[in-house]
């Protein structure tokens, strides 16, 4: 059973603050790391798929980095907005096709 | 990207009853997955549903409690049987096109009273 952990579990920030959270995963037999943004009553939305050590991806104000040797990924949000409020999920692929999800980080951005 | 339509989006059910959740994919997919997220917990895989064979259940989940159907490559159902308040969760279906791509339904928020 793979252990994918996210921290913190929840986070409250003020509008305009920048923030980041962590996903840790087993480094052995690693294939890919996925980040999703999940708003209530909507489908989780894919943000990034990262495979290479040192990968850095960016989508607007959101960016992510990947360290496959030590088994962690950071997600950064610059200048948080209320519409960024959601649960951010990471999931890792190892041997096989199934994703193993972390517990998610619930972000709440106050206006 | 594929689109998955999941129904119902939410329901409030009496204990002891059963609820069937449906997921319809707009294209053929090989593997479909069912997840559960209990309040404050991780998104946890219940089972993998393959067309033409019995679902494969993860540790802690059994067919009698969570029967799954996968009659074709675009559709699957999950039934939550003999419900108790502990079954109150968000249930989410997913389809997988390979290691780099996964799609999700909108989720079903189930409350058992």
In short:
The complex is a heterodimer of chains A (111) and B (113). Chain A has 111 residues and is mainly beta.
Keywords:
heterodimer, A: 111 residues, mainly beta, six-stranded mixed beta sheet, globular, B: 113 residues, 11 strands
Q: What can you see in these coordinates?
A:
By secondary structure, chain A is mostly beta strands. Helix content of chain A is 0%, strand content 54%. Chain A has strands at 5-7, 10-14, 19-24, 32-38, 45-50, 56-59, 62-67, 72-77, 86-93, 99-101, 105-110. In chain A, the strands form 2 sheets. In chain A, strands 2, 4, 5, 9, 10 and 11 form a 6-stranded mixed beta sheet that branches. Chain A has a 5-stranded antiparallel beta sheet with strand order 1-3-8-7-6, with no helix packed on it. The N and C termini of chain A lie far apart (40 Å). In chain B, the strands form 2 sheets. In chain B, strands 2, 4, 5, 6, 9, 10 and 11 form a 7-stranded mixed beta sheet that branches. A 4-stranded antiparallel beta sheet of chain B has the order 1-3-8-7, with no helix packed on it. In chain B, a hairpin with a 5-residue loop joins strand 5 (43-50) and strand 6. The radius of gyration of chain B is 13 Å and the shape is globular. Chain B starts with a strand and ends with a strand. The model of chain B has no long low-confidence stretch (mean pLDDT 91). Chains A and B meet through strand 4, strand 9 and strand 10 of A and strand 4, strand 5, strand 9 and strand 10 of B.
């Amino acid at each position: 059973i793979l252990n994918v952990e996210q921290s913190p579990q929840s986070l409250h920030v003020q509008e305009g603050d920048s923030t980041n959270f962590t996903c840790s995963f087993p480094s052995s037999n690693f294939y890919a790391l996925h980040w999703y943004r999940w708003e209530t009553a909507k489908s989780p939305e894919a943000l990034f798929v990262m495979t290479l050590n040192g990968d850095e991806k960016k989508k607007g104000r959101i960016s992510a980095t990947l360290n496959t040797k030590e088994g962690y990924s950071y997600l950064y949000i610059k200048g948080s907005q209320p519409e960024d409020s959601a649960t951010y999920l990471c999931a890792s692929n190892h041997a096989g096709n199934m994703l193993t999800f972390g517990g998610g980080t619930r972000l709440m951005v106050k206006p | 990207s594929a689109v998955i339509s999941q129904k119902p989006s939410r329901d409030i059910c009496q204990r002891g009853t059963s609820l069937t959740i449906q997921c319809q994919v707009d294209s053929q997919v090989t593997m479909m997955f069912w997840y559960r997220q209990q309040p404050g917990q991780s998104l946890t895989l219940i089972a993998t549903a393959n067309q033409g064979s019995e679902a494969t259940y993860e540790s802690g989940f059994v067919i009698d409690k969570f029967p799954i159907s996968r009659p074709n490559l675009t559709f699957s159902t999950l039934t939550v049987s003999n419900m108790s308040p502990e079954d109150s969760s968000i249930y989410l279906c997913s389809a997988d096109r390979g290691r780099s791509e996964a799609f999700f339904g909108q989720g079903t928020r189930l409350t058992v009273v």
